[in-house]
Amino acid sequence: MSVSVRDAWTLIHGMTFGALFLLAYAGGIAELISLRYEDVNSPSAAQRVKRLKLGTTVMAAVAWLTVITGTWIPYVWYRAKVPTSPRSFLLSDPATAGWHKFGMEWKEHVAWLAPILATVVAYLVYYFGRRLVREEKIRQVAMVMYNLAFVTAAVAGLFGALITKAAPIK
Amino acid sequence: MSSVTKETISYDAQAETSSLPMGPAAAAILAGGIGSAWYGLMVLLSEASKGFGNLLNFYKPVGPLSGKTIVGVAGFLLVWLVLGNLWKGKDVKLNRVWPIALALIIVGLVFTFPPFFELFAE
Questions:
Q1: Closest Cα to residue A132, out of A57, A40, A41?
Q2: Cβ proximity of A153 and B38 under 8 Å
Q3: Is residue B35 a contact partner of residue B103, using CB atoms and an 8 Å limit?
Q4: How many CA atoms does the CB half-sphere of B71 hold within 13 Å?
């Protein structure tokens, strides 16, 4: 049962950061939604905002780490100009070419929208703090951007998992 | 002791709940939109023109994605910096900024979708 350096980085990029991202998203979106029921002066509002700051910060940070590690580490091995690289393998057969031409091309590009959007949301949470309870429009904007960040990352994560199954990095 | 604590909590709550200018928030939101569209444009242009793609090939093992992402993120941060300074302390109408930002985010999503950018592939 050995794990190579390449396996380790693929795991870190996909599963470690992916799991953290999902947890942070779930916590953040729950707190954003429940803020509407709060009283701006209540201690529980302060607690919610504190957790929201943590959730959105972790989500943004993990999103950046995911795309940076993914682009500059496993992607290099994925696209290496050798016949045994996953890219070469997938493109060698019309039956599997779609995994690269659609799956990987979509994943590698759309993923970078996630940290941009997540960072904006984290900023809004820090800027408004407890005032988020009263700022309904800002909460709505934050929720839309937060969900879009999640969807783009989910697409990237899904195709990453499927492509790794079809053509693992060795 | 408890009355001093209550006053302190009341003062903190007031300080944290008074209105803030919308400018900096609007700047971040619009920068998110412009950044998304700008990055999407880098993807689209590099597919449409091999020459442009080669210009973005900052690091060969990563290929043009290296330049697309660096230029894309740099654009997002630069726009945020500029808008943040322009709108600092100002009250900007969120109802004007948000639809534009959302439309630009959708542009970014469309431009990074392979069936779309491959329509322009050289």
A1: A40
A2: no
A3: no
A4: 21
Q: DSSP state, A42?
A: S
Residue spans of the domains in chain B: they are 26-120
3-state secondary structure string across A107-130 = HHHHCCHHHHHHHHHHHHHHHHHH
Q: Look up the pTM and report it.
A: 0.92
For residues B107 and B35, is the Cβ–Cβ distance under 8 A?
no
pLDDT in tens, A3-45: 889 989 999 999 999 889 989 999 999 999 988 877 778 888 8
pLDDT digits (tens, 9 = 90+) for B64-86: 999 999 999 999 999 999 999 99
Nearest to B61 among A76, A106, A108 (CB): A76
Return d(Cα A1, Cα B3) in angstroms, integer.
Answer: 63
Q: How close A20 comes to chain B (CA, Å)? A: 22
Judged by DSSP in three states, A58 sits in helix
Residue B14: CB partners within 8 Å, gap ≥ 6?
Answer: none
Domain ranges of chain A: 5-166
B47 residue type, one letter: E
ipTM of model: 0.94
Q: Which of A102, A105, A148 sits opposite B105 (nearest CB)?
A: A148
Q: Does B64 touch chain A (CB under 8 A)?
A: no
Q: How far is B112 from chain A (nearest CA, A)?
A: 6
